Amino acid sequence: MHADPGGPFLIQRLDDADAPAGPVNAAGPAQLSLLDDDAPRWVWRSPRTYRALLAAGVRVTRAHDVELVERLLVAAAGRFGAPHGLAAASARLAGLPEEPDPPPEADDEPPGLFPSAAPAGPETLAAVVAVHAAQRRTLAGNPRLALLATAESAGGVVAEEMRADGLPWDADVHDDLLTTALGPRPAGYARPRRLAELAADIDAAFGRPVNPDSPAEVLRAFGRSGFELPSTRSWVLKKVDHPAVAPLLAYKELARLHTAHGWAWLRTWVHDGRFRPEYVVGGVVSGRWATRGGGALQIPRAVRGAVRADPGNRLVVADAAQLEPRILAAMAGDDALARAGGREPDSDLYAGLAHELFGGSAPDGRAKAKLAVLSAIYGQTSGDAGVHLALLRRRFPAAVDVVEAAARAGEDGRIVRSWLGRTSPPAAPGDEVPARARARGRFTRNFVVQATAAEWALVLLAELRAALHAAGDPARLVFFQHDEVLLHGPADGAELAAAMVQDAADTATRRLFGDTPVRIPVPGRVVTSYAEK
DNA sequence: ACAGACTGCGCC
DNA sequence: AAAGGGCGCAGTCTGT
């Protein structure tokens, strides 16, 4: 399929060998919806194609996204970061020089603005068909990568649908939250009242005007008061005994709220009761999503009360509990670690681990166990981390081996791969310098776990979306953030939808790891507001 | 005047 | 309490 925004949809049927099995046809939205009743696997160029379809009112059951898959295949072939756009992929097939990828188009940009972009219309369709066939040949020999390609494509579908549906956002509640914290909305670009008061308190404490938004000025002001500080980070300031500290900390927190998620944000990003961020599938090298604009993956807790279900509806908020250590246990086949994570839906892995490592009654056992696990996954070396990690290694050697092998690979300048085959970037020139090599070791150590967790979440999303779709959409996916999903739908279907999340999670675990004792709890709570516990 | 680096902090 | 992995964004600072 090929869809120019607003233009005709060009479609062509493929046979079992992925070759054209008929002529190119132009189809309208109604015809496309009818064709989807047979649940074909649609093949298209990029999530943009689906954006155009959704705009025309067409939703599909499943798809293969050529550009998303091409990026996976290019990296897997050892050419991380090489162009993966349709034009480049098409040129590679033809043995021609690759064209660089065009820059991402703005939403309202007419197609074809960039001369280097792929040709429009039937030629684009032919390129999609040819590149898809080549991709399928490559994937035929690699079932794990094929699963990843399917999940990545499904991610593109979910991302565009979530953007089209939007996250329910109550601007009045948001405005009330801001007014309570900052004072009334100021005219123009003036400081809100509360910030102005705190700035005055800061000036008074230093005995002269100091711009609290300027770290350099704040450092100089403390210097004159006899405090030489390494930075103005809040945890540094908290240790300083000076009257400016309290108003400065309060100012920083509120200024952050004002600039990042204040009235300007609200006006820019929330329309008609919906927040519609643009999700960038695979935007992070680990396979996590990024967003473009709106900071959707950093919605602070302070404004989550503004995320409210429509009247008569509910939100289902579900996040995977201690996802990364459980993923590590599954990857490593470390049944001891899996058992420590427990099998109950609400089991606490760190508590179970504390029992295993320190016995039941050790003080701070849970905190120490958590530190040990984070050391293993992030490569932390400071404080007691090394001691706790050694303990972890003795009890769970299989799990620790997985991350330490990844760390060694990174330090040696080699690449690593996730469980399904997402490939890390290669070492850069200069990475053999010891400090850089250690940093790269920490990166690859984390990559194997974070990237596998990301693909598990992607498979969960795909399964959940398919199950919801098949059940007639008792709820819609409206938000996804690394290990957390939000659903929105009628109140009477919310409990069912919450149960479907755990089912999708269990299916994802089996799809990736087969028969494993690892269980990943994804408890869903049915709420009216995202801020509710 | 504008671009890019840097700082600091929100989220996972 | 602090510091390990991954981001995006707003504001200041610096260089041209």
Largest sheet: 4 strands, antiparallel
Number of domains: 4
Give the structural class. Answer: alpha+beta
What proportion of the residues is helical, as a percent range? 40-55%
What is the mean pLDDT?
Answer: 90
Tell me the fraction of residues in β-strands, as a range. 5-15%
In what order do the strands lie side by side in the largest sheet?
12-13-11-14
Number of strands: 14
How many alpha or pi helices?
20
Which helices and strands appear, and what pairs or packs with what?
Layout: E1 2-3, E2 9-11, E3 25-27, H1 29-36, E4 41-44, H2 47-55, E5 62-65, H3 66-76, H4 86-93, H5 122-140, H6 143-165, E6 167-168, H7 171-182, H8 193-206, H9 215-224, H10 234-237, H11 245-261, H12 263-269, E7 270-271, E8 274-275, E9 278-280, E10 290-292, E11 313-319, H13 323-332, H14 335-340, H15 349-358, H16 365-378, H17 385-395, H18 397-411, H19 434-470, E12 476-480, E13 484-490, H20 494-513, E14 524-527
Parallel strand pairs: 4-5
Antiparallel strand pairs: 1-2, 2-3, 6-8, 7-8, 9-10, 11-13, 11-14, 12-13
Helix pairs in contact: 2-6, 3-5, 3-6, 4-5, 6-19, 8-11, 11-12, 13-18, 13-19, 15-16, 16-17, 17-18, 18-19, 19-20
The protein binds a DNA duplex (12 and 16 nucleotides) through residues 211, 213-217, 231-235, 238-239, 252-253, 255-257, 259-261, 283-286, 288, 290-302, 319, 323, 374-375, 377-383, 385, 442-443, 445-447, 449-450, 481-484.
